[in-house]
């Protein structure tokens, strides 16, 4: 299942938690039992929805540990400023790209070091022992 953002208008939020759950259920095509935060605490009021929080939608007849539908950070955004929401999403994408570049850089450095160490050790002339005496070639 793909994670999706859900933006609510103030009028929708004012209709209450049941209406919000119904809208989420339509989006995910599931019969919702409850909406909980990542610690498993039930979100019972619309005012408890944080604009940058992550939530889990639990279907009827399931528990928090059974089957869940993970809604990631920013999945439910009660902010009315659409430009700010899009900027946060773009900011997160840039952060993930930076992390990926750092990981690739670290991998390439570690492979580069192992090659240079092998090359340096082969360029040093080895010691040869004849009759207990150390002679260099």
UniProtKB/TrEMBL annotation:
Chain intervals for the UniProt region annotation (Disordered):
81-137
Composition-biased stretches, type Polar residues, lie in 126-137
Q: Where is the composition biased (Basic and acidic residues)?
A: 84-96
Bias (Low complexity) occurs at 114-125
Superkingdom field = Eukaryota
Where composition is biased (Basic residues), the residues are 97-112
According to UniProt, the name of this protein is Doublecortin domain-containing protein
Organism lineage reads as: Eukaryota, Metazoa, Ecdysozoa, Nematoda, Chromadorea
């Amino acid at each position: 299942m793909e994670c999706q953002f859900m933006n609510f208008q103030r009028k929708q939020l004012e209709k209450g938690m049941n209406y919000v759950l119904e809208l989420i259920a339509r989006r995910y095509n599931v019969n919702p039992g409850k909406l909980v935060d990542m610690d498993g605490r039930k979100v019972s009021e619309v005012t408890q929805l944080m604009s940058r929080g992550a939530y889990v939608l639990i279907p009827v007849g399931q528990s928090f540990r059974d089957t869940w539908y993970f809604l990631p950070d920013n999945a439910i955004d009660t902010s009315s400023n659409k430009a700010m929401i899009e900027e946060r999403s773009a900011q997160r994408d840039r952060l993930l790209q930076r992390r990926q570049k750092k990981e690739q850089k670290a991998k390439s450095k570690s492979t580069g070091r192992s090659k240079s160490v092998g090359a340096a050790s082969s360029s040093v002339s080895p010691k040869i022992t004849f009759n207990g005496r150390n002679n260099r070639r």
